[in-house]
Structures are given as C-alpha cells and as structure tokens.
Design goal:
This protein has 257 residues and is of the alpha/beta class. The chain is built from eight helices and nine strands. The protein folds into two domains: 204 residues, 3-Layer(aba) Sandwich (Rossmann fold); 37 residues. The relative contact order is 0.14. It binds nicotinamide-adenine-dinucleotide. The site of nicotinamide-adenine-dinucleotide has 27 residues, from helix 1, strand 2, helix 4 and helix 6.
Length: 257
Amino acid sequence: MTLNGKTAVVTGSNSGIGLGIAWEFARAGADVVLNSFTDRDEDHAIAAEIAKETGVSARYIQADMSKGDECRALIEKSGACDILVNNAGIQNVDPIESFPSEKWDAIIAINMTSAFHTTAVALPMMRTAGWGRVINIASAHGLTASPYKSAYVAAKHGVVGMTKVVALETAREPITANTICPGYVLTPLVEAQIPDTAKEYNLTEEEAVEQILLARQPSKEFATVEQLGGLAVFLCSESATQITGTALSMDGGWTAL
Ligand code: NAD
C-alpha cells in the first residue's frame, strides 16, 4: 500500500510508539512530521535518518503539547496534515489524595487536551484535501482502570470519548477518526525496566516480564511499535474506510479479561 503524497503528523514522536508509527508511515510512502517539546540536534537527526532510509520527506518540528497554542502551531507549521496521530503522553502514579495537582494538569493537557487542539486545526485541512485520518493513541487504560493512575485513566478515557465525537462530526465525509488502545508495548523505556525489575523481585528477566510487567496481559507478550505502526497504516487503507469512531485494542487480551 502506498501513502505517497500524504503527510502524517505524529505528536510525541522522537521516541517509543510515536517514532515507530512515524517509521511505518514513512515506509508506506507518507511524508512525516515528527514532534516533541525538545529542540536538539538528535531530534532533527531522527527525521534526517527516516528521510534517508525511506526516501520520503521527514521534518522535526518542536512544539510543547502541554500548550494549546503550540499544539495548533504544530499543525499550521506542518503545512499539510492528511493523517494526524495524537500520541504524545506522560504518566504519573500516585494515590488520588496525594496526586500532585500540577501532574494532573500536565497529564490532562498533554495526553488529552492536545488532541482537541491539533484536531481542531487539522480537520479543515483534511476537508480541503478531501481525505483525512485522525488516529489517537489511548491505552488499555482508555477502556479499563488501574489504581494510582487517576489522571492517565481519565485522560485516556477522554481521548476515546472525544474520538467518537470527531467520528460523528465527520461521518459523511472522507475522514475517519479512531483510537488505538495498546496494552504494554516494548519501547526503550519499558525494555530498560526489565533488568531492574528482575533484580528487585529476584527473578530471571523472562520471569520478570511474564509475572510482573505483563501481569495483566494474557498473551504474556508485549506489542511492538512496528505492530502499532502497522495498525495505524491499515487505518489509512481503502479497507478501513468504514472503520470510524472505534477503539481498537492491541493488548494481548488485557481488556477481554
Ligand atoms: P515515550 O515516553 O517513549 O514517548 C512519549 C513521547 O511523547 C515522547 O516522544 C516524548 O518526547 C513526547 N512528549 C512528552 N511530553 C511532551 C510534550 N509536552 N510535548 C510534546 N511531546 C511530548 O512513551 P511511549 O510508551 O512511546 O508512549 C507513547 C504513547 O503511547 C503515550 O500516549 C502513552 O500513553 C501511550 N501508551 C504507551 C504504552 C506502553 O506500554 N509504552 C501503552 C499504552 C499506551
């Protein structure tokens, strides 16, 4: 499948899932815009590497997704936005009575409100282009809860809800909006936790993955960033034209429990 001529903007994409998704879009022929809040040489180098390896145009645009005006500026500066992937996200774990207010505000802003701002600017561009895809990265925590993750669970449920509204507002147009809900994904951050978790619980690394990290994931396997990218690319295919307003889980059975 080719996405030649399309531009995919992926928020929070200088690492992890966002970067994996950007790579899959570039491999499928789409031009890509990478983003995070930093503006380091290595951020721009990632875009240069994607462009070199795949032959598409790849740019890195700095914008802080905790700030509404910067979310909007990201889409404006991108110039085109046929595919919008709202992926930027952070986490904090604390019981609700001691959950820091500033962490609550930051999680709601970055994980949820940013998608409102980017979508508001991207939809008119999609309408002008006559085609568009909004793909929001929520989580199994957009459908279920865990203790101590109040802001994250609230934000991710909010994203699932807002995506349904976008799908209804665009239902008669060649635009779709869907949420992807990953379970645990093997990102560099998660990978780095394996040796420490094994040591802490006196387990082998294999046991630590199965018993601790993937305790709630029945498949006992991580999803990969390439698999998530593959699903995002599929949502841009002709076969996915009637998939809109849904939350698609990639969680090894977590939400079937
Ligand atoms: P990550 O930390 O590798 O990636 C998060 C990205 O968001 C990074 O590129 C980071 O720079 C960016 N970011 C953070 N704050 C930002 C800000 N203020 N402005 C712009 N960018 C910002 O983590 P990840 O695991 O790849 O997570 C990506 C998304 O996937 C998040 O929304 C996360 O909630 C979701 N998710 C992850 C998992 C998992 O197991 N890793 C599971 C379910 C959902």
